[in-house]
Design a protein that fits this description.
Strand content: under 5%
Shape: flat
Number of strands: 0
Largest sheet: none
Structural class: mainly alpha
Number of domains: 1
Radius of gyration: 15 Å
Distance between the termini: 18 Å
Length: about 100
C-alpha cells in the first residue's frame, strides 16, 4: 500500500513541479497548490504504512519515497518532454530499485 501511495504522490508532485515548463500559466493557477495539498496527505498516509511495513525503519521508508520519485520521473520526462531514456537513466533506475531490494531483505 505504501508503494502505491508514494507512487501516486510522486506522479502528482512531478506535475506540480514540471508542468509549468509545458504550460507557463500552470503555476499561476490554483491547481498545483490543490494538488500539493492532496500529495501531502497521500505522502503522510504512505509514510504511516511504510514505516509500519518496514517494522519501524524510517530509513527504508525514506528510500522507498526516493525511489518512487525516480520511477515517476523516468516515466514522465520521456513522455512529456521527449527526453531520451538513456543507459545512464537505466543504471540510475536500477540502482534506485536495488536500494529498495536491500531494504526489503
Amino acid at each position: 500500500m505504501a508503494t502505491s501511495l508514494f507512487l501516486l504522490g510522486s506522479f502528482g508532485h512531478w506535475y506540480i513541479m514540471y508542468w509549468q515548463f509545458k504550460s507557463p500559466k500552470w503555476i499561476a493557477s490554483i491547481y498545483p497548490y490543490l494538488l500539493a495539498i492532496c500529495c501531502t496527505w497521500i505522502w503522510i498516509k504512505a509514510s504511516e504504512y511504510g514505516v509500519e511495513g518496514f517494522n519501524g525503519s524510517m530509513w527504508s521508508n525514506r528510500f522507498l519515497f526516493f525511489v518512487t520519485g525516480v520511477i515517476a520521473g523516468s516515466v514522465l520526462y520521456p513522455f512529456h518532454f521527449g527526453q531520451p531514456f538513456t543507459m545512464k537513466v537505466v543504471v540510475q533506475l536500477g540502482l534506485a530499485i536495488t536500494i529498495i531490494l536491500v531494504s526489503i531483505i
